[in-house]
Amino acid sequence: MDFELSDDQRMLKDSVERLISDRYGLEQRLRYQSEPCGWSKAIWNDFVELGLTMLPFSEEHGGLGLGGVETMIVGEAFGRGLVVEPYLCSIVLAGEAIAQGGGEGAGDLLGPIMGGEIIAALADRAEVVTEGSTLSGSATVVLGGDTAQLFVIPEGEGAWLLPADARGLAVRPYRLHGGGGAADLSLDSVPLEDAQRLADGAVARAIECGIGFLAAEATGAMQAALDGTVEYLKTREQFGKPIGSNQALQHKAAEMLVEVEQARSAAIYAAILSNEPDAAERARGMAAVKAVIGKTGRFVAQNAVQLHGGIGVSEEHIVSHYFRRLTAIGMLLGGTDMQLKRLAELGGFTGPEDHLAA
Amino acid sequence: MDFELSDDQRMLKDSVERLISDRYGLEQRLRYQSEPCGWSKAIWNDFVELGLTMLPFSEEHGGLGLGGVETMIVGEAFGRGLVVEPYLCSIVLAGEAIAQGGGEGAGDLLGPIMGGEIIAALADRAEVVTEGSTLSGSATVVLGGDTAQLFVIPEGEGAWLLPADARGLAVRPYRLHGGGGAADLSLDSVPLEDAQRLADGAVARAIECGIGFLAAEATGAMQAALDGTVEYLKTREQFGKPIGSNQALQHKAAEMLVEVEQARSAAIYAAILSNEPDAAERARGMAAVKAVIGKTGRFVAQNAVQLHGGIGVSEEHIVSHYFRRLTAIGMLLGGTDMQLKRLAELGGFTGPEDHLAA
Amino acid sequence: MDLSFTAEEEAFRKEVRSFIRENLDPVTHRKVADGRIPSKDEIVAWQRTLNARGWATPSWPKDAGGPGFSAVERYIFLDELHQAPAPEPVSFNVSMIGPVLIQFGTDAQKDRFLTKTANNDIWWAQGFSEPNAGSDLAALRTSARREGDHFVVSGHKIWQGMAHHADWMFTLVRTDPSAPKKQMGISFLLIDLRLPGVTIRPIITADGRHEVNEVFLDEVKVPVDCLVGEENKGWDVTKFLLSNERTGIARIGMTKHLIRRIKRLAGDDQAVMRKAAAIEAELKILEITQLRILDAQRKMTGPDPRSSVLKLKGVELRQAASELLLEAAGGQALEERTDEDPLGPENEEWLGTIMPNYSILRAASIYGGSSEVQKTIVAKTLLGLN
Amino acid sequence: MDLSFTAEEEAFRKEVRSFIRENLDPVTHRKVADGRIPSKDEIVAWQRTLNARGWATPSWPKDAGGPGFSAVERYIFLDELHQAPAPEPVSFNVSMIGPVLIQFGTDAQKDRFLTKTANNDIWWAQGFSEPNAGSDLAALRTSARREGDHFVVSGHKIWQGMAHHADWMFTLVRTDPSAPKKQMGISFLLIDLRLPGVTIRPIITADGRHEVNEVFLDEVKVPVDCLVGEENKGWDVTKFLLSNERTGIARIGMTKHLIRRIKRLAGDDQAVMRKAAAIEAELKILEITQLRILDAQRKMTGPDPRSSVLKLKGVELRQAASELLLEAAGGQALEERTDEDPLGPENEEWLGTIMPNYSILRAASIYGGSSEVQKTIVAKTLLGLN
């Protein structure tokens, strides 16, 4: 058991955090969001140059062969910065699905994704059916779908890879509350002959990686929201003293810290779980991670705003952005109730049997 | 709209409250509980003499013909005193079922119940079936069943009246956490020929009256628990000042007050609802009342103990008794989740339709 | 004890509902039902419609041009507006400055302002908060020095709701910086927002909307006849204003409207329906609490600390409903839309403002006395804890 | 970063589990699994069984007669006891006075007490709280005046857990009433409970049990060799004791045992199962928090305020589980039973103590530093709020 980062991991953490603190202030972020595609190509290139887009992929596929902990480091920094570039959708979700299920061709497919030239997206909420050799149906809220050139469309346990300009595929792009973009897809007899089929299980695995990344991102956002709240409590004065001298507010901040620590543990757990070979164990664990992230994120976001008072709901104050991003994170890739339902169906962690019987 | 008590109601309130404050201190209660039947025959006679046992029954049946508000007044005082005598089971539940469903014989049946000579009990959790002209099955946690001479056993929409010594009826009596007693019944081909049948709907109506009484009782207990807590906060000193000067504890007490006010509104609502002719309206309303009573009671009880610290869990301190009684009230006649499920099934108070359409 | 409304009250409720049904512009209605904010024109038009019926100023007495509603009628009227849902009459006009002018205004001020205020010919903004004076309102710094027939006002006000629609602002200024207590040197002033030296800057809120503003006052010359009440006695006026008109503070009708939307979106999701029932149960009981307090307030004067109970529980339930509505709407509610998006088909539930409204409704436990402030009021005044 | 235990640690876990399975008296096991409190004899017997294996004092170093467990082994050992479930070694002996004597005791005191303490030949009681000294422990009034070779002790202690089983009590007394700060005049004393002037009075708690007591001390003559540490320096000893041994403070294993019982009782009640999942999800994550803090504590000395995080969330989840267990058991859990009732059939779930245990578990957020105290610690030490 060891919770320390390795030297390499610490170096990665330093460089990502430096990039975010240098290049990702609230005003800079606003500028990036006002670019035509809703994010900054320049920052995206920085991510590519720093190797972040190659990070989780195996060396065989041309990646860096790093794992859950490294992805967590990136996610936490991105959460603090409220990064809007399509890392989650293209690298963590679609990229991972291709890496897991793309077979021998995966390396070739991943090349331009890792290179940042192609943005890919995974339609985790697709409802599609094959009819002969065509695919029809729809998908809502496809993360990153607004700027993606390549879609992973789950069907059955596997998935289809479709280019954004495939015949019969209509893309309705939009921006999302909390940052980033998405699209609704409608598929009308899209021909599958040229499409690539991804192997069974790849999408499930990718979504687990996505949950892990969201957990890290949420942790970064929550920690930043807590830090900002504590700073505000110490500096904002009313009735001639810092509002942080109010015991009721101190206790609320303490409750926030407890939940932030839980979120951090959830992110770490997810990072470690990504190496877990037992699929049932991963499924249970990721359901717990997402449920806890949803609940803690809701609590921390709401209380950060409450303790900030009026300015907490102002667009000009970053806490309102953390609030919205944390709300969105709670809803993406399956909300809290859905995850708890799933965890209950999977039997939970502790069975009804006597412990000594095991 | 008028929330004032009438002069008669105020007189009733005064006399019941005086009886409780004179005769129902914590030590006196302990003495009553240590009597063989678990409650005081002397106090029971006082209730009879005060007319409380005749209170809800029509003048035609020999009662006082009073209603929900008067029952609420009694319930609230009993809640403050943590009364253990079998008023709820014999008068409010079984008595009401007989009054509603006993037809022409109801007056004769109610005579000895109002006179306090016979204790009756309603098996609200009975699972029984008729086989020919006999009744078989079981019932758990029959309130007051430990000392009852007469049982109301629901079957279908109606019910059967059985004497406690009926052939084939076995009674396992016990005491309940939070005060009072109960019994589990087991019925093995109990002959029905001499048994009285109560009309359909009588039991449902009686259980609604029971919920109303529990709401009032809970309100009395919650108000007393809050009063005691505030008194403790003002007098208990730590670190050289009253603990009630801690803002965090002040806020917790304020939250308790909000819930106590809600409980009081629930009790009032139940009192008024008891005259509501529309059965669906009553069913919805009573489900809401019981759900709110369960939730507020849990919150107030837990926080009253928490704010008392160690002595809050001591048998010698009355707050621990309020805690237990409120916990029990939450579980009797259908717990919070069951009531919410029922309320949802009944469609709730507000339909999905536009308000202006109505 | 009797919870039922009189036949007259029931008839009044029906009358209000019919009036709304027949007179509320369908587009305005759709917008409010969708959770959008109507345009200034739509709000003004509706207030004038109400005013023509004599209902624009529900809390004003008859001799001040109001309808002379009883407390119960006022409650019923607001509840019907909230449930319809229809826009409320602009509260800055109707619930804030109107009653203040009726109580403290000179005859000249009443003549000049009341009729126009009721008809929304003047739209008022509230100029109380400052960057360093929020909960601690008396810490305000905006200064007004007397020069002949004018006050010369300089300062920085914040959180002026709808000030970009407004013509005038009622505001608090410090006229005696040397007063022994900070509450003692404050005056209550009416400021024409077209005066030189007034700058209004929008604040965009977490819902993406422009609803609130900052107002900068730079040597603004305000005629002395715009002083309400006595000079340096503005705190009394303020206390009156803040304690006034708590009817409907629980906003139960608005929460009911959210429940309706939840039920439309939930379909057969039993978990959501169960949670809706939990909110509804408490809401039904809160309605009784509301009526109880209303009944008690009829028999008393001055502020009632139990209004804090209504605010606390009312906000809790409204925020819970908005959160559940977001849950019922699911991921698709994350799509960014604006109030200006075209109205969709009549029967399609508009998801566009569910997330913004959930976000901005967090402020309901902040403004008008935060939940923390309300709990302190309850603890001190109702429980005697100090 | 690696969450997995080493092969040795995994083997140790198996060894502990096997040992419990093979050596824990079945009746004692049934009682703890049922949520009953075993008898004194059963608790002592189990501690002696553990002691024979060298495991009765998991936090003691090897040279003091302990097993010399690593922090991780200590955690695993306690977790297995909690999950089994088996009685913990008596904490007054093992986690409180033992480490104090090892740190502050004279050689004579160590020789006299340590071995007997480990084997439960002496059962210790804790004599800290007084009626007016709870959270504010330093306000204690019990006095000890020096008379030759003795302290003469008089006072009133309260909440002595299991003192009716105890032979000795470690306690705090005021030896210098004139000290400038109240913390400065306190000494740490060991008192033989058989001495004249000692009276123990039971306190019955909300679970109907006799677990805690009051101890009255009336001119009790305590030999000076029973002073631990220096005279008037008892506060240092106390701080050491209170900050010591926070392993397992989250009691995760105990909550897991409650979850098992909930699942057995829930049957196919999906609502209960969903709520169980909500507790389990947080509990699983709290386990990671526990391990993170354990890992960090290995590298530091002195008290760690993050223990407060574990206590807060651990208690919250344990109380939630006990509440859900009550819900799963339903109305039949209201039947009054006692720990002394005969054991039922092997596979029948014992409902008798579910309600008492729910009630008494409310005290888990009160004793050992209430949740309010823990939040203040977190706010001050981890967030720097004052």
UniProtKB/TrEMBL annotation, chains A, B:
Cofactor(s) essential for the protein: FAD
Annotated Pfam families: Acyl-CoA_dh_1 (PF00441), Acyl-CoA_dh_N (PF02771)
InterPro entries linked to this entry: Acyl-CoA_Oxase/DH_mid-dom_sf, AcylCo_DH-like_C, AcylCo_DH/oxidase_C, AcylCoA_DH/ox_N, AcylCoA_DH/ox_N_sf, AcylCoA_DH/oxidase_NM_dom_sf
Coiled coil spans: none
CDD domains named among the record's database cross-references: ACAD
Domain Acyl-CoA dehydrogenase/oxidase C-terminal: 214-345
Swiss-Prot/TrEMBL keywords: FAD, Flavoprotein, Oxidoreductase
Domain Acyl-CoA dehydrogenase/oxidase N-terminal: 6-102
UniProt GO MF annotations: acyl-CoA dehydrogenase activity; flavin adenine dinucleotide binding
Superkingdom to which the source organism belongs: Bacteria
Family: Belongs to the acyl-CoA dehydrogenase family.
Name of the protein in its database record: Acyl-CoA dehydrogenase
Organism: Novosphingobium malaysiense
TrEMBL record, chains C, D:
Record domain Acyl-CoA dehydrogenase/oxidase N-terminal: where: 6-119
Domain Acyl-CoA oxidase/dehydrogenase middle, residue spans: 125-218
Pfam families: Acyl-CoA_dh_1 (PF00441), Acyl-CoA_dh_M (PF02770), Acyl-CoA_dh_N (PF02771)
Keyword line: FAD, Flavoprotein, Oxidoreductase
Residues that span the membrane, as ranges: none
Domain of life: Bacteria
Gene Ontology MF terms in the entry: flavin adenine dinucleotide binding; oxidoreductase activity, acting on the CH-CH group of donors
Limits of the Acyl-CoA dehydrogenase/oxidase C-terminal domain: 232-382
Database matches in Gene3D superfamilies: Acyl-CoA dehydrogenase/oxidase, N-terminal domain, Butyryl-CoA Dehydrogenase, subunit A, domain 2, Butyryl-CoA Dehydrogenase, subunit A, domain 3
Names of required cofactors: FAD
A GO cellular component entry from the record: plasma membrane
Family: Belongs to the acyl-CoA dehydrogenase family.
Name this polypeptide is given: Acyl-CoA dehydrogenase
Organism: Novosphingobium malaysiense
Lineage: Bacteria, Pseudomonadati, Pseudomonadota, Alphaproteobacteria, Sphingomonadales
